[in-house]
Structure prediction request, 332 residues.
Amino acid sequence: MSKTIVGFMLVDAPHSALNNAGADAGDRTDNIVRVKSIRRGRKVYPYVSGQALRYWWRDTLEKKCGWSLSPIVREKKIAFTHANPIDYDDDDIFGYMRALKAKEGGTVTRISPLKTSPLISVIGQSPTQDFGVMARHEGDPVPYEHEFYSTVLKGIFSLDLDSVGVFYAEEKTGYKNMYPDLEEKAEEEGLSHDENSKKWTMADDVRIKRAQDVIETLPHLQGGAKLTSHLTDVSPKFLVLAAINGGNHIFMNIAKEIEGEATIDFDALTEVIEEYSDSLLTDVYIGRRKGFLDDLNEKIITLSKKNPKIKSGNIKEVVENFKDIIPELIKQ
Prediction:
């Protein structure tokens, strides 16, 4: 089993078009932008792709934490990073795949320790069509359309702490992280090496910082499409954090829709905390931004009183308190 941070978040999207899909083939005009959405039964649920969320996260880590991002190389129809998780923080946390020449080590891949779901609307939607014109030129104005929505988006993520700063050279897809030049660098940098498992491990302080940075950036997440005209704050407004022994995500099903509004199913949350109490490595931290789903406040307080393993506060308090636990988890 592995030590894994699991997180659940709600993002308030009151007037948003955060991830767009372009035009549909059957649209009456080419000059329309549709939001990304999926259908379940008769309902439409806007979403933000996992790739977009990861892009926001990586970008925020660079800006907020000064991460050194791996340069991207493009060759014809393919693009790849340097596949160097020693020098580049994001190659470690976000993973990579690169096809080297056989004499250079062949294809190397790394499964991302940070895994995310898409952000999906909790509430079924009928996206609104907004009409505009470009009229600052001579002649007829140019009309255009785009969609936006008002909803709450839910998402889950996990961070495999046992994989942060730990690299393998075994011939197995996702685990052949190393190649001769990188192993030479690892030796020069003083990474610890287990010959039997072909494992290289970075110093604890580097591993701790990278893991802490991933969590610390949550209140500062920024990004999304149409910011100039919709300006949505994509940082979590409700957040649950815990570390478990294992990889299953225990908080996946704690959000629900009641009468067209998003809320948290506290019965489901209570049940899953009790059911997995023997797997929890930490307390369960619940954060909420004041002004967002204020009716949840009493329920969070009640839950905290019933279960001493529930710690609550605002988003930044919860993130800071949880971040302080990470060194102990890494060193276990």
